[in-house]
């Protein structure tokens, strides 16, 4: 998604204002029913923040699970109990003042640290190092695509849904304004630093004989060579690589990596991307969560059922 | 000015910290067990927001899986917790945390 800088800022501040205001009402208002209703608003605001972070699947789950399921549970319990009118009266105690003071202190400390250390303080026009669209020193989707085109790929085969500006840049075939091929290759190798992120990459046939661990050695070797700011074509084959190795193979390898990284960036936050990670790398936690849910069902039934020995009131 | 117009990692972390502190204030100051529970949900949400921000910052999907797991745990916690509250209410006819002092010494 392509957001303008100011559109994004306005959207963020609007969302943040709604989230903070409704969260404040959750804490401040004395009536639990009003608390629960403001909690819905706060959950929706957090869902919008997820959308701003390109986490569309999370935003959907947030609304379904929190605003849909958990809030209904809360409202049902509020309905089942009587709120004692004397509980609604304000009573100030030293404990409350201490608790509120501690929370305020934590808030100011954290906000000072985060706003002091992780925001862009450079001059206007310069790139934002803490921008959420890229890691510092990591190639953007546009640069990666430009690299692919510079080694002979076509626009349509590279980018599924390019922004008009990006498409124009590729059509011109100009990677001259961006970083060099060496920088892009280095960024890609760093971006795919986790071995399991390599799942996004479909390596060329020449590399299919190499085992995954050896592939990781190869990646490190290439990274070290590139860190010495040499040309991409000068990267040497690792010792374990048995096949024939020339510029063409190396180029195919790097192209595959770039394409994998580009796919990773483009599908970020989609349901497919979440599912891919959830059902491969995190399959054990996923199954454990199902057992947790089962245990919760049994536990709730055990707690909620009435004792069989009388007291039928 | 750029620190206010260039929204980055820090802004989302700050929002997350504010929500967390509000929830923490609720847990520490509220006396109604239900409201304390809602404040805990607020804190869980703020932690999820921080996970999602860092996931976006590095463009890796692991953070989203953590948020997913946190949501599952939150759902379990609410279901069991509210059942406990309900059975407490049945036997004591109150949910005020000041009066639930059976385990206090």
Describe this structure as you would to a colleague.
The complex is a heterodimer of chains A (313) and B (105). In chain A, 63% of the residues lie in helices and 0% in strands. By secondary structure, chain A is mainly α. In chain A, helix 2 packs antiparallel against helix 3 and helix 5 (141-150) packs antiparallel against helix 10 (247-266). Chain A starts with a helix and ends in a 9-residue tail after the last helix. The mean pLDDT of chain A is 76. Chain B is mainly α and 105 residues long. Chain B is built from four helices and no strands. Chain B has helices spanning 2-5, 9-29, 33-58, 62-92. The longest helix of chain B is centred in the last third of the chain and has 31 residues, at 62-92. Chain B starts with a helix and ends in a 13-residue tail after the last helix.
Give the biggest beta sheet of chain A.
none
Question: Level of helix content of chain B?
Answer: over 70%
The string of secondary-structure elements of chain A, in order, is HHHHHHHHHHHH
Q: Report Rg of chain B.
A: 18 Å
Task: Give the structure's gist in a few sentences.
The complex is a heterodimer of chains A (313) and B (105). With 313 residues, chain A is an all-alpha fold.
SSE arrangement:
The complex is a heterodimer of chains A (313) and B (105).
Chain A: H1 5-28, H2 32-52, H3 56-80, H4 94-117, H5 141-150, H6 155-158, H7 164-172, H8 181-191, H9 212-227, H10 247-266, H11 271-280, H12 283-304
Helix pairs in contact in A: 1-2, 2-3, 5-10, 8-9, 8-10
Chain B: H1 2-5, H2 9-29, H3 33-58, H4 62-92
């Amino acid at each position: 998604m392509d957001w303008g800088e100011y559109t994004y800022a306005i959207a963020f501040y609007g969302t943040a204002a709604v989230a903070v205001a409704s969260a404040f009402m959750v804490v401040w208002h004395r009536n639990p029913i009003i608390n629960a209703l403001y909690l819905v608003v706060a959950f929706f605001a957090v869902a919008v923040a997820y959308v701003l972070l390109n986490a569309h699947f999370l935003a959907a789950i947030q609304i379904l699970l929190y605003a849909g399921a958990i809030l209904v549970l809360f409202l049902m319990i509020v309905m089942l109990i009587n709120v004692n009118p004397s509980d609604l009266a304000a009573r100030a105690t030293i404990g409350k003042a201490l608790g509120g003071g501690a929370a305020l202190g934590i808030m100011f400390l954290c906000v000072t640290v985060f706003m002091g250390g992780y925001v862009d303080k450079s001059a206007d026009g310069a790139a934002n190092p803490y921008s959420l669209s890229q890691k510092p020193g990591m190639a953007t989707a546009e640069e990666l695509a430009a690299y692919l085109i510079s080694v002979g790929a076509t626009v349509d085969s590279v980018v599924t849904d390019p922004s008009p500006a990006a498409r124009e840049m590729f059509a011109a075939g100009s990677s001259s304004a961006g970083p060099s091929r060496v920088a892009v290759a280095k960024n890609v190798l760093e971006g795919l630093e986790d071995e399991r992120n390599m799942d996004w990459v479909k390596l060329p046939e020449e590399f299919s004989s190499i085992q995954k661990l050896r592939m990781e050695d190869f990646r490190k070797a290439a990274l070290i060579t590139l860190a010495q700011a040499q040309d991409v074509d000068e990267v040497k084959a690792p010792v374990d690589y048995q096949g024939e190795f020339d510029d063409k193979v190396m180029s195919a390898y790097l192209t595959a990596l770039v394409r994998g990284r580009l796919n990773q960036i483009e599908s970020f936050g989609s349901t497919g991307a979440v599912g891919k990670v959830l059902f491969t790398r995190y399959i054990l936690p996923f199954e454990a969560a199902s057992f947790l849910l089962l245990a919760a069902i049994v536990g709730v039934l055990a707690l909620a059922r009435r004792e069989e020995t009388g007291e039928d009131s | 000015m750029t620190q206010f117009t260039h929204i980055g990692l820090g802004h989302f972390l700050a929002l997350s910290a504010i929500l967390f502190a509000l929830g923490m204030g609720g847990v520490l100051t509220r006396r109604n067990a239900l409201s304390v529970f809602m404040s805990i949900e607020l804190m869980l949400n703020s932690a999820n927001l921080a996970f999602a921000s860092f996931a976006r910052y590095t463009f890796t999907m692991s953070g989203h899986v953590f948020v997913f797991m946190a949501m599952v745990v939150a759902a379990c916690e609410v279901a069991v917790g509210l059942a406990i509250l309900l059975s407490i209410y049945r036997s004591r006819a109150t949910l005020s945390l000041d009066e639930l002092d059976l385990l206090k010494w």
